[in-house]
Amino acid sequence: MSAQLIDGNALSTEIRLRLAERAAALASRGVIPCLAVILAGEDPASSVYVRNKVNACEKAGMLSLRDTYPADVDPALVFARIAELNADAKVHGILVQLPLPKQFDSQAVLEAISPEKDVDGFHAENVGALMQGTPRFIPCTPYGVMEMLKSRNVTLKGAEAVIVGRSNIVGKPMAMLLLAAGCTVTICHSQTRDLAFHTRRADILVAAVGREKMLTGDMIKEGATVIDVGINRMADGKLCGDVDFASACAVAGLITPVPGGVGPMTITMLLSNTIEAAERAAGKRAKT
Ligand code: GUN
Q1: What architecture does CATH give domain 31-114?
Q2: Is the pTM value of this prediction over 0.85?
């Protein structure tokens, strides 16, 4: 079998057209969706992600604010800025890029963001809502993955879904979404004893570990849908995923490429969440 690609760029373009209509409808009511992004430290990958997020807002006719801080910033300054952004009615979404420098209590920072503006969906209230099956903001990467599965009508009810990686950003929320959609979900991680035993059972395999090409074709079931969330920079400077694309393509039914797969979808769903936040805020104002 030679796998078909799920093209994240093409799907993003399609979704962003619909988002542009929603942004235009808001603009006609005098509301321009605005995302505020906070970056602390000089992590090169984070800087690229933040730049891409800010650029995507501009292209979508949205506003963005970017605050950057040196790696040794006093956390009090960041907390003060978050409080300001929480209180600013013109700001609809707030995102603090992770990871944060070591002097930060990351969870405390995420909890400081108003849940109504938490477009990452990382605040405990939003995590709890997702867990209860009543999501308010769905974390952008797993949200994008669900959209990719939907775009190809991948059967979710009763499917065996295996997620490799248990992060708060991807693995755990991904599990909740697939579970809600009717999958039987397994989460594997660094202490999983026989990883291949689990991955070979997967109808849907989501790789989110951050290790270059660690899932190879022999670990994948014939015809499986393989979603590669990893973005790793190889020694030659090129990007690759957590899946060994060449060997996986020979057995998978559907597969996402890296780059051009989940990455653009993450940003698209961030735009979607920000527009959603703006619509909710505008709706609230219309009623008062
Ligand atoms: N770092 C890696 N992925 C993400 C993400 O989706 N949101 C934030 N805030 N930081 C990240």
Answers
A1: 3-Layer(aba) Sandwich (3.40)
A2: yes
